Amino acid sequence: MHRASVETKIASTAVALGTIIFSTMILTLVGQFLIILLFQFASKLPVKRLLIWASYPAFFAVIFAISQAQYSVELSAQTMLRAVDAALLMLLLIGTTPFTRIIAEFGRVSRTLSNLAFFSYRFFFLFTDESSRRLTAFRVRGGFQGPIRTKIKNAANLIGLLFVSYMDSGEKVYDAVKTRGYRGEFSTEAALLGELTRYDFAPVLFACVTVALFLVGSPCV
Question: Are 9 and 93 in contact (CB under 8 A)?
Answer without folding.
Answer: yes
